Amino acid sequence: MRGLIRNLNFLAVMFLIFMGDTSKASERFPDQAIASNIGETGFQDNESNASKSYVTGMMNGVHLSILKNYLVSDVTYENEIPLRKKQKSSGNSQYKNISDFGILVRLSNFSPRVSPQDWKDWSAASTKAHPSFMKSWMMADFDNRHRVDLAQLDMPEKLHEDDAHWGPFVRDKNLENGLIHYESVQSVDDNPVGHVEYFYQKSSRTTILCKTHRVHVAPFDTYDECQHYFFVPDLNVMAEAFYTKADLPRWNEIESQIKKTVHSFINK
User: Fold this and answer.
1) How many whole angstroms separate alpha carbon 102 and alpha carbon 140?
2) For the chain, domain boundaries
3) pTM as predicted
4) CB neighbours (10 Å) of residue 115?
């Protein structure tokens, strides 16, 4: 549950950054690694080098070498403040424990930013008024600060009890995209949070929270966002992916591709 709540903070940070107010984002969520412009973390100045250089560290005893052009922002090491701009970390990072890192890939092919056109496309997508970049780009976060509790994830009903102000929830009689589906009876206009849906698979403990929001200025359109929470055995950590509901049918592919990418970071 803490992970899902923390995701709301993450998306709020994204919104403040997209609105150009990084100072408020830093004040409101000091535990988040916030770059002065998301995606510009000190290594973007030489995009070609980003595809050849790595950030190293360990997560739950697994040695990682993460290609820099995958990273959304700087890796956060245990007991360290997230690095800003070109400030360098002390010590050998190869043996330092990573508490959190996030990656960014195109949804069309799950590739990171490699070419100048990739960086240009990302820059254009990330400057829009709300997180509409999720239609073409996907972020995934790996946060080791909240320990995995698979037993807790086996009880979606408890999630609903904890978030009663979003419900009550009704279970769909049919599976949707192979997932158990719980939907709030509240419409997009009944609750400031918007219309809320949960999607769940018991065998894998996958939990996806989707929200549909109303824009409160003309033309009063709606937009949606999904937070996809699943277990990555290679790192013994929960991953959280962010995209729109249009890509929900791809949830299994998204999990597989993220796990494949993470596996490529492991030092063999």
Assistant:
1) 6
2) 2-143, 150-248
3) 0.76
4) 13
Sequence-distant (6+) residues with CB within 8 A of 230 are: 204, 205, 206, 207, 238, 239, 241, 255
- b/e string for 9-36 if b means 16 or more Cβ within 10 A? ebbebbebbbeeebeebeeebeebbbbe
Per DSSP, the residues of 153-193 read HT-HHHHHHHTGGG--EEE-SS-BTTBEEEEESS-TTTSTT
Predicted confidence band of residue 91 (pLDDT cuts 50, 70, 90)? low
Burial class (CB in 10 A: 0-12, 13-18, 19+), 129: exposed
The C-alpha atoms of residue 208 and residue 197 are separated, in whole angstroms, by 8
d(CA 233, CA 80): 25
Tokens coding 155: 């009880």
One-letter amino acid for residue 42 of the chain: G
Q: What is the CB neighbour count within 10 angstroms for residue 159?
A: 20
CB 240 within 8 A of CB 141: yes
Question: Any idea how long the chain is?
Answer: 268
